[in-house]
Amino acid sequence: MSVLIIYMSRHGCTAKAVDLLARALPGSAVFDLGAVKNPPLDAFDTVAIGGSIHAGKLQRKLSKFCRDNIEALKAKRLGLFLCCMEEGEKARLEFDQAYPAELREHAAATGLFGGAFDFERMNFLERAIVKKVAKLDKSVSKLDEKAIESFAEKLKGN
Ligand SMILES: Cc1cc2nc3c(=O)[nH]c(=O)nc-3n(C[C@H](O)[C@H](O)[C@H](O)COP(=O)(O)O)c2cc1C
Predict the structure, then answer these.
(1) Is the separation of the CB atoms in 34 and 15 below 8 Å?
(2) Ligand 1, closest atom to CA 115?
(3) Domain map of the chain by residue range?
(4) What letter would DSSP give residue 158?
(5) Which of 45, 69, 76, 156 has the fewest CB atoms within 10 Å, measured from its CB?
(6) Which atom belonging to ligand 1 lies closest to the Cα atom of 84?
(7) 116-125 per-position pLDDT tens digit
């Protein structure tokens, strides 16, 4: 099984989740879509894709990548994951809005990995929004390591 992990991260939380995921999928290759334009899909039989939610939306570039590569991704063993701070039904709704139905239905593994608010890495506006909306004024991390492990196992077919 050759695994490619494609991700985007604004403040490093998804990057940290990807680090844990890559460790659970030894030999996997990791591509930050924010830095690399065209990940080499052809060279891999399994692809995991994930990003984070800001103001209700997945990173635009990741969203476009999914839409533009639907057929190629449907030919792969596919995993889709998300980092966000909503939980339960709201998080599931954000997941459903983030990825095209065709890919969600095709995916062998889906995962909600939790998230983090990192005040050190937010700009002034982001800090103000999080203070107002989440009523928080210091950093908090709710990364779900069990969800990451179980996603990796499902992707492996276990
Ligand atoms: C300005 C801002 C807006 C956010 N909006 C949402 C949101 O609408 N829904 C949600 O579930 N999480 C929201 N979050 C939480 C992020 O999804 C969370 O911080 C995630 O871990 C970010 O991952 P990243 O650092 O990889 O980008 C928001 C965070 C920030 C800073």
Answers:
(1) no
(2) 21
(3) 3-156
(4) -
(5) 45
(6) 17
(7) 999 999 999 9
